[in-house]
């Protein structure tokens, strides 16, 4: 009976950990702005930890650390390259598929509110903004304008996006970086086991 481990396996504890990390990263979109820095710090420490494990770890831990690090760092480097040079060479460098996906989901995941004189406009008024940037309540009364087409005129109403565009895309890319790193780690473990089994077959080494 073959008691060797499968090439890729998942434990309940492992899946729960992945679920918790993913939930925290995504949930931080609507949390206090300080949570963005906490998530960024966590992601950085996690990648550094995996790099360390890839160097000093043994067997499965080392394989997973190496795969996680290569895929996570590779994804982050590719994203930064696209962000840096994509606007300069729009015909040559297209947005990454994950960036396109985030853009498509942004509107449905973003909560829009309005502030006037530094105070939030109550949601009970059901404020809505027309194409000209003017904000009205549910009775049709004008509450003010964002002056979106006149940058020299101070707006009387400010549009507040939760999460902000920067927060949304930063945490979204961190989520994809960690997810790809995890899948890369599982791939590395599976490939290492497959390679080991091939080497056990007589004559397979050539």
Characterization of this structure:
The structure is a single chain. This protein is mainly alpha-helical and 206 residues long. It has 2 domains: 12-103 and 164-200, no CATH class; 111-162, no CATH class. Helices cover 56% and strands 11% of the residues. It has 5 helices and 6 strands. Strands 2-1-6 form a 3-stranded antiparallel beta sheet. A hairpin with a 2-residue loop joins strand 1 and strand 2 (119-120). The model has no long low-confidence stretch (mean pLDDT 83). Keywords: Membrane, Transmembrane, Transmembrane helix.
Largest sheet: 3 strands, antiparallel
The poorly predicted ranges are none
Q: Roughly how many Å apart are the termini? A: 27 Å
Supply Rg.
24 Å
- Within the largest sheet, what's the order of strands? 2-1-6
Elements, N to C (H/E)? HHHHEEEEEEH
Shape: elongated
Query: Given the helix and strand composition, which structural class is it?
Result: mainly alpha
The share of residues in extended strands comes to: 5-15%
Whole-number count of domains: 2
Please report the number of helical segments.
Answer: 5
Arithmetic mean pLDDT: 83
Instruction: Find the count of extended strands (DSSP E, 2+ residues).
Output: 6
How much helix is in the residues? 55-70%
């Amino acid at each position: 009976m073959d008691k060797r481990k499968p090439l890729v396996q998942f434990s309940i504890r492992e899946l729960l950990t992945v679920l918790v990390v993913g939930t925290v990263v995504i949930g931080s979109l609507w949390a206090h702005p300080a949570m963005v820095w906490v998530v960024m710090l966590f992601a950085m420490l996690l990648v550094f930890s995996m790099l360390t494990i890839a160097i000093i770890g043994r067997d499965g831990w080392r394989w997973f650390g190496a795969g996680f690090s290569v895929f996570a760092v590779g994804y982050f480097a590719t994203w930064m390259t696209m962000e840096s040079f994509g606007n300069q060479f729009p015909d040559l460098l297209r947005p990454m598929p994950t960036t396109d996906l985030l853009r498509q989901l942004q509107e449905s995941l973003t909560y829009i509110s309005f502030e006037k004189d530094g105070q939030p406009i109550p949601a009970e008024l059901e404020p809505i903004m027309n194409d000209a940037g003017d904000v009205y309540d549910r009775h049709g009364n004008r509450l003010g304008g964002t002056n979106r087409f006149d940058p020299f005129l101070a707006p009387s109403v400010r549009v507040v996006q939760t999460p902000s565009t920067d927060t949304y895309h930063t945490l979204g890319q961190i989520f994809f970086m960690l997810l790809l790193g995890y899948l890369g780690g599982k791939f590395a473990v599976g490939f290492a086991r497959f390679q080991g089994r091939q080497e056990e077959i007589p004559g397979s080494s050539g």
